Amino acid sequence: MNMHAPIGQRPEIRHDWTREEAQALYDLPFNDLLLKAHLTHRAMFDANTIQRSQLLSIKTGGCPEDCGYCSQSAHHKTGLKASKLVEVERVLAEARKARDAGSTRYCMGAAWRSPKERDMEAIVAMVEGVKELGMETCMTLGMLTSQDAARLKDAGLDYYNHNIDTSERHYENVIKTRTFADRLETLAHVREAGIKVCCGGIVGMGEEKMDRVDMLVTLATLPEHPQSVPVNLLIPVEGTPLENEGKIDPIDFVRTIALARIMMPASDVRLSAGRTAMSAEMQALCFFAGANSVFAGETLLTKDNPGEDEDTALFRRLGLKNLQPGCERRNAEPV
Ligand code: SAM
Ligand code: DTB
Ligand code: SF4
C-alpha cells in the first residue's frame, strides 16, 4: 500500500477524520509517521521557516477558573501575585520590542473567565495599537459571547486563542468550573465573527494516548480547522493539582505533533509551552514532524521559555529561518 502522497502533491483538507483513522496514523511505525507528516508539511509550507509569536500576560493571576495545570488559578496556592490589567502604552512598548526581535504576532492573555465590559475599551486600544505596529494580533481572554467576538473583530483582531486542552473525556478531570461544550461554544462565536481560531491543547496531563488522538480529532472535524494549533507540553507548576505530571515519552509528544500536521495540513502547528524542558533533538524532531511556529522570548505568560539567544543558536544549528513580517507562510507552489 502506498500511504504517502507523492512529493509535491497537496493533501486534501478533510473534516471527516475518524478516531480509528487517527489512531492508525498515531500508531504507525515512527519513521512512517514522520515521513508522512513531513511530506504533508513540505507540500504546504517552506519546511525551514518558523513563525514566531510573542506572549504577554496583560492581566495576571487571581483567575476564578480552576484549570488543574495553571499557575494563575485562584483555586491553587502557587505563590503567584495577582495584578491589574496592564496599561495600553506598556503593552505597545513591549509589542514593539517583540517585533524588533523577530516576532510577527503578538498574543495577549488575561486570567479571566470572560472579559468584562469595563475592560473592553482598553482591550480594543491594545488590538488597534499592536496592528499599527504591523504585527498580527491575538488575544486570549476566556469565554466570549457572540457580541464580544463581533466587537473584537471590529477592532481588527486577527486571532483568538481558546484551547480545548485535552479530550472531552479527560476534560473534567482537569477543569471543573467550565465544560468542554463551553469551550466549543466560544470557538463557534469566534469562528462565526470571522476571527481566525488558535486552538490546541496540552500533552502530559496524565492523559491516555486516545485522549491525545481524540483531542486532535475534535479539532480536525470542526467546521473549519483552527488556523493555528498550539501543542503545549505541560509545565508542572508547584501548588497545582498537576504538579507531579508533565512526564511524557518525547516520542509520544512528537507523534502528537505529526498527527496534528497530517490531519490539519494547512494550519500552523505551534510547538508551544514546555520547550525549556525539551532537548534540541526533540525540538528538531517536532520541526521535522510539521511544527512551524514557536513562542519567542524569555517568558510565556508566567513561566520560562528559551530566550532569544538560545533560540537563535538552535535555529542556526538547524538552518531554520524566521518568517518575515508580511510574508505568506504557505508555499505558492508545492515542493
Ligand atoms: N484564561 C484564558 C483561557 O484559559 O482561555 C487564557 C490564558 S490560558 C493560560 C491559555 C492556555 O495556556 C491554556 O488553555 C493552556 O492550554 C495553556 N497553559 C496554561 N498553563 C499551562 C502550563 N502550566 N503548561 C502548559 N500549558 C499551559
Ligand atoms: C497556548 O496554547 N499556550 C500559551 C498561549 N496559548 C496563551 C500559554 C502557555 C502558558 C504556559 C504557562 C505560563 O506561562 O503560565
Ligand atoms: Fe484562568 Fe486561563 Fe489559567 Fe484557566 S488557564 S485558570 S482560565 S488563566
Description of the molecule:
This protein has 335 residues and is an alpha/beta fold. The protein has a single domain, classed as TIM Barrel. The chain is built from 11 helices and 10 strands. Strands 1, 2, 3, 4, 5, 6, 7, 8, 9 and 10 form a 10-stranded parallel beta sheet that branches. Helix 1 crosses helix 8 and helix 2 packs across helix 9.
Main sheet characteristics: 10 strands, parallel
Radius of gyration: 19 Å
* Element-level helix/strand string: HHEHEHEHEHHEEHEHEHEHE
CATH homologous superfamily name? Aldolase class I
Q: What is the name of the CATH architecture? A: Alpha-Beta Barrel
Helical percentage:
25-40%
Write a concise synopsis of the structure shown.
With 335 residues, this protein is of the alpha/beta class. The protein has eleven helices and ten strands.
List the SSEs and their pairings.
Elements: H1 19-26, H2 30-44, E1 49-59, H3 88-100, E2 105-110, H4 117-132, E3 136-140, H5 146-155, E4 159-161, H6 168-174, H7 180-192, E5 196-198, E6 201-203, H8 209-220, E7 228-233, H9 250-263, E8 268-271, H10 280-288, E9 293-296, H11 308-318, E10 321-322
Parallel strand pairs: 1-2, 1-9, 1-10, 2-3, 3-4, 4-5, 6-7, 7-8, 8-9
Helix pairs in contact: 1-8, 2-9, 3-4, 5-7, 8-9
The protein binds S-adenosylmethionine (SAM), 6-(5-methyl-2-OXO-imidazolidin-4-yl)-hexanoic acid (DTB) and iron/sulfur cluster.
